[in-house]
Amino acid sequence: MKRVLVAPLDWGLGHATRCIPIIRLLIAKGCDVLLAGSGGSLALLRAEFPLLRSYTLPAYDPQYPEKRSMELAMARQLPRFVKTIRDEHRALEALVREHPIDLVISDNRYGCWSAAVPCIFITHQSNIMMPQRFGWLAPLVRRANLRIMRRYTRCWIPDVLGSGSLAGSLISFGGGHHAVAVEYIGAVSRFVPTGRAVEKRYDVVAVCSGPEPQRSVLERLLMKELVESGLRFVLIRGVVTGAEQREGERESEGNAEGKGEVIDFLGAASLQEYLEAAAVVVARSGYSTVMDMAALGKKAIFIPTPGQTEQEYLAARLKEQGVAFYMKQHNFTLAAALSASEHYTGFSSGGMHPALLQQALDKALQL
Fold it and tell me: Would you say the pTM of this structure is higher than 0.85?
């Protein structure tokens, strides 16, 4: 029996959610799966897989500014991030020694590599986009990113090349990926499409996510807009409490007619039920969310985190393709967004390639 350690980044919940289908597949193949991570990311996986052993790694715990420059805020935290990478590498090496681990799968944790065992690095940002005024730094950042990726046995890109790509230029290597063994595993999602028609019980299901304080900023904005809308809505706060917070387990916080419902956190199966019952989903445009919307073939409205270039790029790209409307947070109004979204197609659920992940995992388990 292969023992596999799965370690997602704690930068929001997306890195953890996209590890869920990988963990499910590992379990189905009879592997002994260990979890490692920190913060809400690890708490989410513990709630989803309560029987698996888990270990705490040093936390990145990024803090987003509420009003100041995102670039300045990240620059100030950079020394701490570098220290976290060193600390998590030492912690990972200790775990490999203490539990004879056969394979490590790291989702964007730069320090979770070991020369003692094969290690997989998952990323959708082989090309880390820089803000426009710092574009001159892009070649240096790309080289540094590649240097770290080369420490891993293989790099998995959760996407495909060509016209079916969801990430676009984010997965470009610019001809510099030599010495990095790259595999494209297709878009991955914690949701399992059923293909069945579901009654649209909610006009809007809104999902909050990402580091604080911007998660709370989005929650307050959406709560105000939803309550005033008079629509049937569900607001999922994205606050992992360690257990599902289902309907009826807390007081509804909707409008005067009681059309609204607020939920802290849901497991993958329950969340899928809510999303499938929504006429439209409002969420951040993080890549894991984009993959989830593609898996379910949903109509979505995106609000990128201010200053997060990856989310801004994805939202703008999907808008240009006519798939999903997006609006910036500072001028967001639900009524205008819903009206504009009528002219967008929504995602097609036919772009998933589960066989690619199966093949990549089979090869990794043979290393």
Answer: yes
